Amino acid sequence: MTYSIPIIDFSDFSNRSAIIAQEVLEACETIGFFYMISHTIPKQQIDHAFELSKEFYDLSYEEKSKYKIQSNFHGYSGLYVQRLDPKNQKQGDHKETYDFLPFRKGESLNLLPEVFLENKDYLENFARTCHSTAIQVLQAFSIALKIPEEEGGTEWFSVRHRYDVPLSSELLRFLKYPKGAEETYNDPVRTGAHTDYGSITLLFQKDIPGLEVQASRTDWISAPIVKDAILVNVGGVMEYWTNGLFKSTLHRVVFLPEHQTHDRYSIAYFVQPEKDASLAAVPSSIIPEVRPVFEDAPKNDDQEMTVDDYLNMRYQQSYHPKN
Ligand SMILES: O=C(O)CCC(=O)C(=O)O
Ligand SMILES: [Fe+2]
Question: Which keywords appear in this protein's UniProt record, sorted alphabetically (predicted)?
């Protein structure tokens, strides 16, 4: 069986939501990834975000280090700081990241370098646009899952993903994979195989591929760059919420020959629910009644876990791995 990542057209969402929901359901039940095309984020807005990202990463390491990652996981991380596959990686990921906490109507909770400070309204607008795009995807999920109206219907997910609340945990991340040869790094994998943590991730890839997805649970396929598409994938919270119906699939970034001469940039918008939301299953007749035991499940009763407990557990594993 060959696997590929489906392309789903979100145009005219309000009239076509039933068809879109069906396609989304098929993608999430199988590969856990899909490309979203005809979304509402203008190309210039995405291009400008990449320009700001590059401007930041062009700064010296000393300068970037002034904005180092804080205990609540925002700010700058240099090469090898995060290790997404601690069981198999000898050293951390060969990438740099800058994580933004949600913006607060003109203010950022991060300590911002000049380039981001000067553009903070722009960055806030970009984050909010990503948020509303994510809400549309989550509405398609509610329709696909047939969540009853009296339980929240199409808004079941959106009421757990409000942007302007103190407990919001959404995260905009700028990534850079600096050019270099695989031999110097001594590992073909640049970002360890991992699943994402939250409900969904929106990924913007630019020019240089490298992402791979474990489509069949054993074989890796590449996730090529599809022009103007956002790559959407299911995260761990969503897998819990759907009792495993929606698959949070392993993915990684590998060295490709073009990485020797070109930096690779990507932008991820991690859609993570409000911290006090529970991981109890969504009210849906189409999900399994019993939750499977997930590899990352803690020993205690996971029904009682909040999103905050779960995300903290996952962050600790990749930033402070025990092995
Ligand atoms: O940079 C990429 O293409 C993927 C990044 C990713 O999977 C992540 O940060 O979770
Ligand atoms: Fe990821």
Answer: Iron, Metal-binding, Oxidoreductase
* Rounded Cα distance, 298 and 47, in Å: 40
Distance in Å, CA 58 to ligand 1 centroid? 20
Centre of ligand 2 from the C-alpha of residue 195, in Å: 6
Q: How far is the CA of 268 from the centre of ligand 1 (A)?
A: 7
Q: What structural domains does the chain harbor?
A: 7-319 (2.60.120.330)
Q: Is 196 in the pocket of ligand 1 (CB under 6 A)?
A: yes
Q: Is there a contact between 161 and 271 (Cβ–Cβ < 8 Å)?
A: yes
Please tell me the pTM assigned to this model: 0.95
pLDDT in tens, 166-209: 999 899 999 999 998 777 777 888 988 999 999 999 999 999 99
Residue with tokens 């991992």: 194
Q: Are 166 and 185 in contact (CB under 8 A)?
A: no
Specify the residue with its C-alpha closest to ligand 1, atom 3: 211
Say yes or no: ipTM exceeds 0.95: yes
Quick check: CB of 254 below 6 Å from ligand 1? no
Number of Cβ atoms within 10 Å of the Cβ of 190: 22
**What secondary structure letter does DSSP report for 278?**
B
